[in-house]
Amino acid sequence: xxxxPLTDIRRIVTALSEPALIxxxxxxxxxxxxPPRSSGRIFPDLTPQQIRHATEQANTIGLIHTRVxxxxxxxxxxxxxxxxxxxxxRWARRHAYPAPTGDFTGRIRHTFALLTEPRVHAALTAxxxxxxxxAGTPESEVVEPGLAGPWRLLMQxxxxxxxxxxxxxxxxxx
Length: 174
Description:
The chain is mainly alpha-helical. The protein has one domain (6-162): Orthogonal Bundle (Arc Repressor Mutant, subunit A). It is built from 9 helices and 2 strands.
């Protein structure tokens, strides 16, 4: 399977790493659809503009849909992205990344950023017969153990959701 170029992955990961978007998707995944006009109560620390932007972004990417009665729920794509977020945060927590303590959103953001570092990206996309680095260590060993799990899940999500690449490209051009 082809992996998108690192620059495309960076753009998409940046869009998917918006704290308000992460919170919106995981809130709906954890607690069910958000009733109409409840987002201010559910996200009291976010401004109405942040909530609106995250909702518009999620709608454009196809992560949410309006439910009968006006609330918002997750699409299949949104459910799968919530799983990517969960797996990523679990890996980060298990490996105390980026620090022994941290919040769910921060762990996702930092781990997504790690996945787009050139050396990590190269190790994760290397062929199954690893080359040796100058020190004689296979490139795949440069990557933290288990990081391939979140990477594979993220790549599966990206392949299944090409609209995210289009959105990220348009988002950065605006």
